[in-house]
Specification:
By secondary structure, the protein is an all-beta fold. It is built from no helices and ten strands. The protein starts with a strand and ends with a strand.
């Protein structure tokens, strides 16, 4: 599975075929709501939606051609500041809660103080 600005695609490693997942209109996974960090967990995907300041679990159909529902796992936690990048360890998801990308200017300089890195963890079911 690959997240991109237009949604989420399923890529066959054997054939190279790329197929976009079908997504209900009520579930947002593209453009401003796109995913920055995507992880497979059982028959679902865990996605970090940085611009929405949340971590979301997307349940997949069988076979895995569509997203059938979403569950927001964490949203607008006060420790979040552009969440990104995570790792699954068993049934626990760890992620960087405060990448602070918006504190970097277009020229690559930083003119505001950075916070210490914050790693948050979510117990998955």
């Amino acid at each position: 599975f690959v997240a991109h600005s237009e949604g989420i695609a399923k890529v066959s490693l054997a054939s190279g075929k790329v197929e976009n997942l079908a997504v209900p209109n009520s579930i947002k996974v593209s453009h401003r709501e796109s995913i920055d960090g995507l992880y497979v967990y059982k028959n679902s995907l865990i996605g970090i939606q940085s611009d929405l300041n949340r971590v979301t679990q997307f349940d997949l159909s069988v076979p895995q051609g569509a997203i059938v529902r979403e569950k927001i796992l964490q949203e607008n936690d006060s420790r979040m500041d552009h969440p990104t990048t995570g790792v699954l360890v068993g049934d626990v998801f760890y992620y960087v809660a405060n990448a602070q990308f918006q504190k970097v200017n277009e020229n690559g300089s930083i003119d505001q103080p950075l916070s210490d890195p914050t790693i948050l963890k979510l117990k998955l079911k």
